[in-house]
């Protein structure tokens, strides 16, 4: 309409230039009427999590506090909230556009994610955010997309897996969506429209992809996606832990931790262990560490898995546990919880330092992600939580490795820490001695 009116104006000007004795006619330019937008009434809520978090004691999900959740439409934020200490967000009941609306979820140190909002998408969602240290992506391609679509389906069955992490990349190897399932191989992505997409998956010790998905202009159910090169069926290995003291007497209380592929999984069971066979077949160096708290002792034994579905794990617990993690905030009283402290050195040079509270009533963990574990200064991110709820944390703390003799790592750390509302608690200073696992 504007273009047509402009043409009329130009014609009038030309006519006036040729016939100077004629009057100039004024033409009103009328804007088109507002476009009516269909809406739906929804109450949006959910939990934002870090899948298979290295901060977690069990290497499973950890809720992300104070993540920003924005309800977006046509490039504008219609509303926004932040997640609480349990990673939960909730919007009031509201009218939102039936097409084109989406949630944008962001948090410092994480890649963003989106959730499409339409008449068929669930109002309760569980978006996951990948830490920027996850994967080998060229970057993220979600933030500036013009449109988003929802794609969902299943990775092939049958399988007895407990869940999987999925992610999508575009042709530039940018991350454009992720999803983590619980108990099956279902996926439900929100991702960019009209771009070539490639699907990847990870669970247990299997990784797969890229599986070409194509370029999608609208939301679609992909049904079942197959990767015929992989046998997804996996049997469990179970075993009893027989822990004895230095004199051969049975130990009735304590907890076991399995270390495989350089990462330690904490388990509360004192006399039982189970795992997928492939996790042990792929790592002949996997070992069990058994820890007691009174007296403080630990012992290790190589698993030496040779097949079958049964393990006999006999471990002598004799070594005095002199590991520690001590800290104070704002020159306050020193906190020195007498617990086994360990460190995992990752293949990419990073390291995970942990002290785990095995209490059944209030299990907790203090975890540091170190930029490096060799002697010298590095940076570290911190999370401290009890019963899965974050108590405090900090990013970019200064950490100095004073010694790494191949068996133990010792060092100091300092930096500001914050509560779950991102309010400054104070400056935290401390030291540690950790067993390399």
Q: What is shown here, in short?
A:
With 437 residues, the chain is mainly beta.
List the helices and strands and how they pair.
Elements: H1 2-18, E1 39-42, E2 45-47, E3 49-50, E4 62-63, E5 68-73, E6 76-82, E7 88-90, E8 94-97, E9 101-106, E10 113-117, E11 124-125, E12 139-140, E13 148-155, E14 165-169, E15 174-180, E16 186-192, E17 196-203, E18 206-215, E19 220-225, E20 236-244, E21 255-260, E22 263-267, E23 272-276, H2 277-281, E24 287-293, E25 296-302, E26 310-316, E27 319-320, E28 324-329, E29 335-336, E30 341-345, E31 351-357, E32 364-370, E33 376-386, E34 389-404, E35 408-418, E36 424-436
Parallel strand pairs: 2-11, 12-15, 13-19, 20-26, 30-36
Antiparallel strand pairs: 1-8, 2-7, 3-4, 5-6, 5-9, 9-10, 13-16, 14-15, 14-17, 17-18, 20-23, 21-22, 21-24, 24-25, 25-27, 28-29, 28-36, 30-31, 31-32, 32-33, 33-34, 34-35, 35-36
Q: What can you see in these coordinates?
A:
- The chain contains two helices and 36 strands.
- By secondary structure, it is mainly beta.
- The strands form nine sheets. It has a seven-stranded mixed β-barrel.
- The N terminus is likely disordered.
What percent strand? over 45%
- Average predicted confidence as pLDDT: 87
What is the strand arrangement across the widest sheet?
30-31-32-33-34-35-36
Give the structural class.
Answer: mainly beta
Q: Please work out how many helical segments DSSP would assign.
A: 2
Helix-residue proportion: under 10%
Main beta-sheet annotation: 7 strands, mixed, barrel
Poorly predicted sequence stretches spanning 5 or more consecutive residues = 1-24
Radius of gyration: 28 Å
**Termini Cα gap:** 71 Å
| Strand runs, count | 36
Shape: globular
């Amino acid at each position: 309409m504007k273009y047509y009116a402009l043409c009329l104006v130009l014609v009038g000007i030309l006519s006036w230039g040729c016939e100077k004795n004629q009057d100039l006619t004024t033409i009103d330019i009328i804007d088109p009427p507002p476009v009516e937008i269909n809406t739906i009434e929804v109450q949006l809520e959910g939990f934002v999590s870090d899948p298979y978090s290295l901060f977690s004691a069990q290497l499973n999900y950890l809720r992300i506090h104070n993540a920003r959740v924005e309800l977006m439409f046509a490039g504008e934020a219609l509303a926004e909230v932040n997640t609480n200490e349990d990673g939960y967000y909730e919007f009031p009941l509201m009218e939102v556009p039936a097409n084109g609306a989406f949630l944008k979820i962001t948090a410092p140190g994480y890649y963003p994610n989106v959730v499409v909002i339409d008449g068929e998408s669930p109002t309760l969602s569980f978006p996951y955010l990948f830490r920027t240290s996850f994967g080998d992506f060229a970057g993220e391609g979600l933030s500036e997309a013009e449109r988003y679509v929802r794609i969902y389906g299943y990775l092939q069955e049958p399988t007895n897996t407990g869940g999987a992490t999925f992610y999508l990349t575009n042709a530039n190897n940018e991350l454009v969506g992720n999803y983590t399932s619980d108990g099956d191989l279902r996926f439900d992505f929100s991702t960019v429209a009209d771009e070539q997409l490639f699907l990847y998956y990870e669970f247990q010790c299997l990784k797969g992809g890229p599986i070409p998905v194509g370029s999608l202009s609208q939301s679609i159910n992909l049904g079942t996606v197959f990767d015929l090169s992989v046998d997804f069926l996996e049997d469990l290995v179970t075993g009893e832990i027989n822990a004895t003291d230095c004199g051969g007497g049975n130990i009735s209380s304590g907890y076991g931790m399995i270390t495989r592929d350089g990462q330690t999984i904490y388990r509360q069971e004192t006399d039982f262990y189970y795992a997928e066979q492939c996790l042990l077949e792929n790592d002949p160096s996997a070992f069990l560490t058994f820890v007691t708290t009174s007296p403080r002792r630990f012992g290790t034994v190589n698993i030496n898995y040779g097949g079958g579905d049964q393990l006999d794990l006999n471990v002598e617990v004799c070594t005095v546990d002199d590991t520690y993690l001590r800290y104070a905030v704002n020159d306050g009283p020193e906190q020195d919880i007498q617990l086994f402290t360990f460190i995992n050195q990752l293949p990419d040079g990073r390291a995970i330092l942990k002290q785990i509270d095995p209490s059944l009533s209030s299990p907790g963990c203090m975890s540091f992600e170190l930029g490096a574990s060799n002697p010298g200064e590095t940076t570290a991110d911190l999370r401290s939580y009890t019963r899965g709820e974050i108590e405090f944390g900090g990013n970019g703390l200064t950490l100095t490795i004073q010694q790494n003799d191949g068996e133990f790592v010792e060092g100091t750390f300092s930096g500001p820490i914050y509560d779950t509302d991102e309010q400054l608690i104070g400056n935290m200073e401390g030291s540690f001695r950790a067993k390399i696992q």
